[in-house]
Design goal:
Elements: E1 2-6, H1 10-21, E2 25-29, H2 33-43, E3 46-47, H3 51-56, E4 60-63, H4 68-76, H5 81-84, E5 90-93, H6 99-111, E6 115-118, E7 121-122, H7 125-129, E8 133-138, H8 141-154, E9 155-162, H9 166-194, H10 199-208, H11 214-225, H12 234-251, H13 256-273, H14 282-289
Parallel strand pairs: 1-2, 1-4, 2-3, 4-5, 5-6, 8-9
Antiparallel strand pairs: 7-8
């Protein structure tokens, strides 16, 4: 399949590599052209000068960028995909943005004869690397079936979860829970340290019992070492939690644990950890308690 891929960051570069391994022809675009040229030279792809050029060369255009403003810009802005793509081109946004933004962008793309599928992912860089992401897609069933071979090249679990925007909403809820679990783990480690508990023993016991979680498996080690090598940026997790809370507020329902986690992430970001992995939420609780692991 001819694919335009826009956004070659931590996740996008690995996801695009999975598509190349599956044999798809890629035309890539990245805001920093040097990044796109380096990636294309390594993996074998064409570099587009603009998103419109990427769209003109593709049957399906995939976007993996930071936020709703960037999605709108690369799809509908000057030099955007809508300027170059032929009617009938499918756009698949794999970024994480507000469901309301997704639906608005989808409506505008339809005016250009283009369709949109929202297909955000869960699973950090290692799962993007080996093509085992979980992908939740919202949109028309026929668009999902059209994109499915591409999604299956990037993910181990690929689900159609409802109409446009529902992929995003499911992802936001999932990330809010993940962030809250990471924040809970950080607090547990700080309490344990302050009370003299052997932290490695604590992690082993929690992992063998009801205190176990994916976040324990993924983040306990980095937290104990204060190793915040970025797999998922803290500022991006904060954005996702904030969006989840906003959608809940619109629906008139509370999510108190997510609200508390938003504040902890904000505090860690204020301490200079925006670009670090969200395991750095630990820094907020260490600062609050005056305790260092």
């Amino acid at each position: 399949m001819r694919v335009g891929f826009i956004g070659l960051g931590i996740m996008g570069s690995r996801m695009a590599a999975s598509l190349r391994r599956a044999g798809h022809d890629l035309t890539v675009y990245n805001r920093t052209r040097a990044t796109a040229e380096t990636w294309a030279a390594e993996h074998g792809a064409t570099v587009a000068a603009t998103p419109a050029e990427a769209g003109a060369a593709a049957d399906v255009v995939i976007t993996m960028v930071v936020d709703g403003d960037q999605v709108r810009d690369v799809l509908l802005g000057p030099g955007g995909v809508a300027e170059g793509a032929a009617p009938g081109t499918l756009c698949v946004d794999m970024s994480t943005i507000a469901p309301s933004e997704t639906r608005a962008i989808g409506a505008e793309l339809a005016e250009h004869g283009l369709s949109l599928l929202d297909a955000p992912v869960t699973g950090s860089a290692p799962r993007a690397e080996d093509g085992t992401l979980t992908i939740m897609a919202g949109g028309e069933r026929e668009d999902f079936e059209r994109a499915k071979p591409l999604l299956e090249a990037m993910g181990a679990l690929v689900l159609h979860v409802g109409p446009l925007g529902q992929g995003e909403m499911l992802k936001l809820v999932n990330n809010a829970v993940a962030a809250a679990n990471a924040a809970t783990l950080a607090q547990a480690l700080v309490v344990a340290k302050a009370t003299g508990v052997d932290l490695k023993a604590l992690v082993a016991v929690m992992g063998a019992g009801s205190g176990g979680s994916t976040m324990l498996t993924l983040k306990a080690g980095p937290m104990l070492e204060h190793d915040y090598t970025t797999l998922f940026k803290l500022e991006h997790m904060l954005k996702d939690v904030r969006l989840c809370l906003e959608e809940g507020q619109t629906a008139g329902v509370p999510f108190p644990v997510a609200a508390a986690t938003r504040e902890a992430l904000s505090a860690a970001m204020g301490r200079g950890h925006a670009d670090d992995d969200f395991a750095a939420v630990l820094e907020a609780f260490e600062g609050l308690a005056g305790v260092r692991l």
